[in-house]
What does this fold into?
Amino acid sequence: MKNDTALVLIWLQEVWREKKSDYYLRNMDVLIEKAMYLIQYAKEMGYKIIFIRHQETQGPFSSADPLSEIIEELLSQEWDIILSKYKISSFYQTELEKELLGISNVVVVGIPTNLCVRMFVEEAYDRGFNLVLIEDICQTYNDKLQDFTLDDLNETRPDLDIVRLEQFFE
It folds into this structure.
């Protein structure tokens, strides 16, 4: 049991895979499939599983819009933790720090890599967590932005491990 490890899934909400949405991202089926595999592994290893849900007062990220829900097939157990955030930061005015008490290692995935995932990584890194970012379960609007964000995080956070899913299991 790895009770000192958490899997944090950021902003994996229905709006990203809805083709009619302004926020639609390509290849979401592949990302979801990989995330499901990682979640299953995390459950078997005893990781704490935390979903970060982005919310706004209106629009597709409001609680009134069904597209703001966490992607249903990713929710693994009734005791998964779902925290709502209202800014780019997952830590700002949320219970995340409390949920991470006693956690040393954090595995992170999510959308968009260049905003919420990056902010989470920077803030968690500065708080001293051992971080693994699984790059192929992160996505943004285009490959150039994705590559830049990952390269910049790699250059500015030397202890951050950025790996592909298959490397994570090695």
Remarks:
- The chain has a mean pLDDT of 94.
- The domain at 8-168 is CATH 3.40.50.850 (Rossmann fold).
- The chain has one domain: 8-168.
- The helical segments are 28-45, 96-99, 113-126, 143-156, 165-168.
